Task: structure prediction
Amino acid sequence: MKTITFIGNGNMALSIAQGLKNTYKIEVVGRDLTKLEKFEKALGVPTEKALMDDFNIEGKQIILCVKPYNIEEVSKKFIGKAEVIYSVLAGSTVEKLRNNFNTGAVVRTMPNLAASVHHSMTTMTGDASYKDQATEIFSAIGPTVWLGSEKELDIATGLAGSGPAYLALISEALTDGAVKQGLKRDDAMEIMRGLFGGFGKLIQDIHPALLKDGVMSPGGTTAAGYGALEKGNVRNACMDAIESAYKRATELS
Ligand SMILES: NC(=O)C1=CN([C@@H]2O[C@H](COP(=O)(O)OP(=O)(O)OC[C@H]3O[C@@H](n4cnc5c(N)ncnc54)[C@H](O)[C@@H]3O)[C@@H](O)[C@H]2O)C=CC1
Ligand SMILES: O=C(O)[C@@H]1CCC=N1
Result:
């Protein structure tokens, strides 16, 4: 079994490791032994654990899972040259990663929160000679798309990386709307979850505009609700959300 080494032991590292634990030997490197033990317990398989200081990354395949503002501090702690670093960091460029880490190759990836349930939508870009291996690794947590540039990855960060938070806002707001009209909270939550479950399947094969046309009867309930969403400028707000997230990703570089 090949080994994958995680630098960082937070939410993203654990979610990705959950997807890989049956096909790779997992090694995790962090700052605090107690937290590394917690990580191993949560993962549920024997895990190599090491502290960061003077950790030798020579020849290793690494998944970097710290925060973007930790790069400079974290990268100084290692010795040796990694084979490849797969970074999940929002915004941090290939150039910045190369300037800080001694590594043969760099691939930037952008998973999302659904990694924890093996349904991440992960985008990737970087050293093209690692495209197949990156696809194999990250397919363990859901579908992947290889993109041709870092600009595209930063845009995709706004779409799929941050997307769960935007959809959470919509789902909470729709549920609140139903409660406001008199539905019980528990019923509204159950109904909203059913809505998203079915919609998640439909949207795989049907264009959004056709899906909308299929629901909207002339003079019916959907047309009334849809008109209210357009009046609230929801479409424009969604486009602005992607623009703001993309801009922020470039600032994190
Ligand atoms: N949460 C999400 O939905 C997504 C997060 N990401 C990226 O994943 C990365 C990690 O995010 P999470 O796992 O959510 O965060 P987290 O807070 O759960 O984990 C961060 C890890 O970095 C370590 N760390 C923090 N400060 C450190 C320091 N000064 N020196 C050494 N280690 C330090 C922490 O101990 C922890 O292991 C971020 O760069 C983020 O951009 C990417 C896609 C989605
Ligand atoms: O908000 C963030 O910066 C990270 C990247 C994508 C999701 N969470």
The mean pLDDT is 97. The chain has two domains: 3-147, 163-251. The chain is about 50% helix and 20% strand.
